[in-house]
Amino acid sequence: MSFLDLFSLEFMQRALLAALLTGLAAPAIGTFIVQRRLALLGDGIGHVAVTGVALGLLTGTSPTWTAVVVAVLGAVLMELIRERGHTNGDVALALLFYGGLAGGVLITGIAGQGAATLQAYLFGSLNSISPDDVLFTALLTVVVLTVTLGLSPQLFAVASDQDFARVAGLRVRAYNLLIAVLAAVSITVAMRTVGLLLVSALMVVPVATSQQLARSFRATLLGAMAVGCLASVGGLVLSAALSFRVSVAPGPTIVLLALAMFTATWPLGVWLRRRSRLMAPFPEVSAAPHRSTDEHPHEHGADCGHPAVPHGDHVDYVHDGHRHAVHGEHYDEH
Questions:
Q1: What is the sign, positive or negative, of the torsion defined by CA atoms of 78, 82, 84, 85?
Q2: Please, which residues have CB within 8 angstroms of residue 265's CB and are 6 or more apart in sequence?
Q3: Sign (positive or negative) of CA dihedral 236, 237, 243, 245
Q4: How far apart are CA 48 and CA 61, in angstroms?
Q5: What's the pLDDT at 188?
Q6: What are phi and psi of 293, to 5 degrees?
Q7: What is the pLDDT of residues 215-253, one digit of tens each?
Q8: Which helix (H) or strand (E) holds 319?
Q9: Pick from 29, 5, 12: nearest CA to 187
Q10: Coil, strand or helix at 183
Q11: How far apart are the first and last CA of the chain?
């Protein structure tokens, strides 16, 4: 079988569609997460979703649905802890990291499933995605894109300056919870593409890449979605091409390709920012007003210490931009 023949297979077509949808949804909500300086939020919710997957394996239901429910509950809990509790956001993320991952591994063992079953959700498994998984991913992607693009002004105001948003009359707590819930939904969208342990990279790296070139929030949002699509689809195609020689997983390939795109655009971003600073106009500075007075508090003489220029039968002393001539025992001021 040749490389082009792979694209005629149904599982490859499903994988390409799922990768495209994931590349759109994850960076869309990731832009607001990066704006809130919560880049590791995806990791925390991803670890909680492991418990959801394990509950699905234990109960015999769909692990995707249970992962959505548990991830949403974990995201809401983390947001409430960060907002109301005495524990700051970093500690709340740590609690989700350790508790979610440990609980998922423990429940998976109780369910009688091995590490190989859980690995498909931890690192992604595009090649085994089913038509129902593609439909489920498409529905969640539509929800994420509709909300993020439709409410982008409100979400941007809350993510940038919560005090300003509160003064402007926005319900800050509700929008913060909405961002957390959308992040949880996006993580379950990307669960079968890049895996729960790598999903945060697809939410953050495309945004960081777009920030190197974009100069507005909307341009950053659209650019991040474009980079996410290129990384997801390109990583899948690259892993398929390499699979003829070695066994390469699509999830890590997608993340590494996204990192390579960031590395390639970073020098250009540095040059653009430096060029922008050089082209910025200097601030206008008004000249200080000139004040003149008839009084001069200093008495000039031969020993006053000002530089003297001798000429003729007198000596000129320079002081404050004026020249003072001294003749014998007195001086004249000009």
A1: positive
A2: 209, 212, 213
A3: negative
A4: 18
A5: 83
A6: -145, 150
A7: 888 889 999 999 999 999 998 888 888 877 877 878 888
A8: strand 314-319
A9: 29
A10: helix
A11: 102
How high is the pLDDT of residue 245? 81
Query: Which residue shows structure tokens 């495309």?
Result: 206
Tokens 């689809």 -> residue = 233
Domain boundaries, the chain: 4-275, 300-334
b/e per residue 188-202 (b: at least 16 CB within 10 A): bbbbbbbbbbbbbbb
Which two three-digit tokens encode residue 58? 């234990």
Determine whether 243 is exposed, middle or buried from the number of CB atoms within 10 Å of its CB (0-12, 13-18, 19+): middle
Which DSSP state fits 282?
A: P
Q: Which two tokens stand for residue 176?
A: 């913060």
Tokens 């959801």 — which residue? 52
Closest CA to 3 of 210, 238, 214, 165: 238
162-172: burial string, b at 16+ Cβ within 10 Å, e else: beebeeeebeb
Write the DSSP symbol of residue 322.
E
4-275 maps to which CATH number?
Answer: 1.10.3470.10
Residues of the chain with pLDDT under 50: 315-318, 327-334
What stretches of the chain show up as alpha helix (H) in DSSP?
Answer: 10-35, 41-59, 63-84, 89-110, 115-122, 131-150, 152-160, 162-167, 172-189, 199-211, 217-242, 250-279
Give 73: exposed, middle or buried? Use CB within 10 Å, 0-12, 13-18, 19+.
middle
The one-character DSSP state at 129 is: -
Considering the entire predicted model, what is its pTM? 0.75
326: helix, strand or coil: strand
- Whose CA is closest to 196, among 276, 123, 268? 123
Cα gap 225→218, rounded to integer Å: 11
